Task: structure prediction
Amino acid sequence: MSDPDTNEFPTLIRPIVDGVNVGWKAKGHLRDGTEADLSQLAYMELTNPKYGTLAYGKNPGGNFDSWAFHENGGGGAVIVPYATVDGNLLIGVVEQDRPNQGGKVLNVPRGFLKPGEPHWVGAERELAEEVGKFVGSLRLLPGKPTNPNSAFFETVQVDEGVKFSTVEVSPGLLVTKNGLVKFRKSAVTVDKENRAAEQITGCHFIPALEAIMLGDMFTVAGVGRLWGMLKS
Result:
């Protein structure tokens, strides 16, 4: 944990002092089941090298308490695979079990960066892990890196934020099976072990208008940026 008596903090959050309006209520339980008293908490920091740092304390922009999350690299990588089939724009999505969204959902490949990992490398890795390896060139979509929620996510450093990439998939790599447009088995090498770990049950292509109506914010933003690039 950072030392509250120094200026070395992983986020802009600072310790709560007298006079700060406290709105968040902190409580917890110890491993033996007893409740921990956190009512006088001035500063808290949770760090996981896979994701980043979550801090609670005084908000830097006002006289109140808040929390902030500083993600590895300032934000993760989102990849929007696409193909044009018979004049129709299709978006590659993975089917994934996401308990925080209630179960299985569709979304474009995306994920956190590893510590020190450049966005470009993270994008290539996430695409290979969640979709598979196939013939196609990854390219960065135009636009500034994005902040998922500026009330709680920090992207204060230059070039921090979620970055969007895309890759065009040749229609020749695809086939329609059971009503779904998918990769031909011979066209893609799938990392089955990682897919299982990520609770991904498949990958297929859907119309862009359908993809932009999905409940995943990163998918909606990614499809919008792809559309803007293709129309410019």
